[in-house]
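Milestone M4 deliverable, item 7.
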Amino acid sequence: MFKKILIANRGEIALRIIRTCKELGIPTVAVYSEADRDSLHVVFADEAVCIGPASSKESYLKIPSIISAAQVTGADAIHPGYGFLAENSEFSEICQESGIKFIGPSPDMIRRMGDKAFAKDTMRAVGVPVVPGSEGAVADIKIAKRLASEIGYPVMLKASAGGGGKGMRIVHKEENIENAFQTASTEAAAAFGNPELYLEKYILNPRHVEIQIVGDSRGKAYSYGERDCSIQRRHQKLLEEAPCPILTPEVRKKMSDAAILGAESVKYEGAGTIEFLVDKDLNFYFIEMNTRIQVEHPVTEMVQNLDLIKQQILVAAGKEIENKPRKAVGHSFEFRINAEDPENNFRPSPGRIKYLHFPGGFGVRVDSHVYSDYVISPHYDSLIAKLIVWGTDREHAIKRALRAFDEFAIEGVKTTVPYHKMILQNEDFRNNNYDTSFIEKLTAKKLEV
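Output delivered:
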């Protein structure tokens, strides 16, 4: 097992990793920017090293500073969490060259499966259903127009080397594709340093469902069930639930088998997700793979009774992991609590938290790094907490979530708590009558009123 693990991240995910390391008896090192000096991940780590000023480029994205912190403290492994350098093949490679274990896939695997066009080709080759689209990056607008005409509108342009809604455009008519291509390419270049786009058929009113997999060091992959991530705003997830309430046992098994097949075909190592779109007839199509632990991993942990961070660490250390087939027990939701103002187009709401009370009780979990008097910085992502609830079934989990939100109190900054309560009380959501356009429709309806 590792002697010491450095967590190359911040906030709730850094604290989440520290907790698992403590249970495994592994000392931890936190790195932090000057703006995060008072964050709880700094407090609870065994050691902490300041790696730069508030700017991410000068701290959490500065590879030499992170490697130096690991070497100075004697850390023999680095966990990247999610975001920042988690899917950076160069960082993984430098860790390797420095004799430090990167807790995640190899540099080559990150490069290959992080490229959406390559990932689609890989899945297509082993028989995993793929959304119709370009075989690789689209060279120019003329080719994009031809492919879109052959596939049929609407189509979606996506950045080959990124995610999170950046470098992504839906095009409904041919006259709009040229402008969409140019703006998406420019956005992709700015966000990921790569302007390449690929094109695929846009599936109308789908559900976004992903399979949680973990690959061991021997080439075997294991599935830990699925999550429904369809409640999204501008391709950014707001809440997730597990298991997906529309899948039949037969479709669930087919999706799980497809995810395992895809992961094993590339000998994937570590935690990752295989993401699918599911249409109204329960046909499913691979869209991408995430080569990291995800924000929404706790919703799977709740129904699987499994620590996915522990699985990651065991795989990286070459240890045996639990590989028995598991069936989800009960139902779980995860709500992303962001410091944003839903009444003002979700504008970020940094500032000092004057009062904070988290909910508790059976089946309620809160992952967060903040507390009363904590200052939320404007320099980072607005996620400040995740509320995760478990119930015996979906209706029970919804009732428990509403109860938990009634206990959730935060003053000093605006948050998405009221917005989540509104979603939970929405009739279509409660009746499982929603898809990836749910938030868009909800917003339009509210504007009409």
